[in-house]
Amino acid sequence: MLTRLRLKNLKTWGEQLWDSGMELAPITLLLGPNSAGKTTILQLPLLLKQTFESPDRHLDLNMGGQPTDLVDLGTYESIVHEHDLHRELGFGLTFKDTSLQLVDDTYQELPDIDYRVTYQNARGQAALKRMEIHCGDQEFAATRQGKGGYLLTAPGYVARQLDNRADARRSFQPERSVAFSPDAIAEVGAVGPAVQDLSLRLRQAVSSLAYLGPLRERPERTYLWSGVDPTDLGKRGEFAVHALLASENSRKRQKEGQEGGQEWLVSRASEWLARLGVADRLELKRQGRSRHYEVIVVRGTQHANIMDVGFGVSQVLPMLVLAHSVPQGTTIIAEQPEIHLHPRAQVGLAELMAEVACARKVQFLVETHSEHLFRRLQTLIAEEKFESTLCRLYSVDKDEEGHARLSKLQIDNYGRVANWPKQFFGDAIGETERQTRKALERMTKQSRPTGP
Q1: Cα dihedral angle (141, 146, 148, 150), rounded to 10 degrees?
Q2: DSSP letters for 276-333
Q3: Is the domain of 190 the same as that of 311?
């Protein structure tokens, strides 16, 4: 689970979130007006994910541009704060590994892994300046020197001196900004396997992130399925139905009474569609002997193709499938999961996240504009169905100079917020007051006698 994010000089963010960072929880909500900086925070782990997974191991930072990339940020100048090429970019995250290690015949929790990386401008691209990985009392780092070589830091390692200068080599440049190079591993000697293990665990944690963007795929009349179980639903949720088909196919192959407690996705999706109040259940209908399938939405006695019902069903379906299809311990990053949903259905998303976070240990990092989702989370805390310590709620806004600022909402065990930002969800009370005043003025005017 990710427990902290750090960023420096990324777009509208200066250095506010660099030293202390932003603390994460099983459920973390980012709330606030448009273009305030919420999406930029979500882009940080996605940027690291596509960098760690880049086919080019010598690439320092993959800022996107390919169809498979999660984010496309352009050039160094386009993303650095105030477009100042002299500023350095900084990213970081802290990862808590929930697995246990055997120490002196007892199992103990592994220390958190803290990762930080900084970049400088090099001909419009990001060049790695320093990478550091901390775990317990261990520190591993590679720092760029004047002529492009990298100086290593590792437990027990003392850099050799060449001509009264520390031995910094170009061959020590980290790979994908996360792993020591083979030459660097050989250079640090006995602790080389330790930094390899930390890099691997960090890459695995970031690679397992699941992302659902704000724009979902439109529903289709029929879906062509090749029989493959997708490992990723796609950033638009385009493979959600394929995951449902794979799960249903697996269920049918199981012998009677040997389901083994698996999460059959059609059942879970149907259950939540019913709880959200948008449908009673889903059915998958094969078209003859072909590989084409219909998704049938059932409500009461009515059976309709997903193309012929409200848009909300197809738009929320990827979120429901994602929550129950990712491996336990996964972090889901989602933008506006409430899109195209009626307010009555939006409240159910808070229940979904709370139940899945507790039952499946899935972490949610969500940007939302839904007051209804937020209010239901407050109610769940008040009803003691979810603990306030398991969520972090942040308001993102801009200061007078247009720079992003982050405020942590203080929520107690009764779901009450002590520090409501001004006009947090608009000005509902003010609008009600203005509407009432104008209505009274009109009624007073209409009641006055007219004529001589």
Answers
A1: -20
A2: HTS-SEEEEEE-TTSSEEEEEEEETTEEEEGGGS-HHHHHHHHHHHHHHHSPTTPEEE
A3: no
Q: Is residue 250 part of a domain?
A: yes
d(CA 75, CA 39): 18
Q: Say which CATH number the domain at 219 has.
A: 3.40.50.300
Residue 373 and residue 318 share a domain: yes
pLDDT at 421 (0 to 100): 81
3-state secondary structure of 294: strand
Is the Cβ–Cβ distance between 72 and 44 less than 8 Å?
no
Domain holding 274, by residue range, is 211-254+261-386
Do 7 and 86 sit in the same domain of this protein?
Answer: yes
- Average pLDDT of the chain to the nearest whole number: 90
Which residue is associated with the tokens 């202390």? 20
Q: Please state, as a whole number, how many other Cβ atoms lie within 10 Å of the Cβ of residue 4.
A: 17
3-state secondary structure 329-392: CCEEEEECCCCCCCHHHHHHHHHHHHHHHHHHCCEEEEECCCHHHHHHHHHHHHCCCCCHHHEE
Kindly report, residue by residue over 187-222, the tens digit of the pLDDT. 999 999 999 999 999 999 999 999 999 989 999 999
176 and 268 part of one domain = no
pLDDT of res. 234: 94
65-105 pLDDT, tens per residue?
Answer: 888 899 999 999 999 999 999 999 999 999 998 765 555 56
Query: How does pLDDT run across 144-167, given as a tens digit for each residue?
Result: 998 889 999 999 999 888 777 788
Q: Which two tokens stand for residue 329?
A: 């311990």
Q: Please tell me the predicted confidence (pLDDT) of residue 261.
A: 42
Listed range (11-20, 45-54, 95-104) with the worst mean pLDDT: 95-104
281-286 and 223-224: which strand pairing?
Answer: unpaired
Pick the closest to residue 238 from 60, 68, 436 (CA basis): 68
Same domain as 126, residue 225:
no
Is residue 62 located within the same domain as residue 147? yes
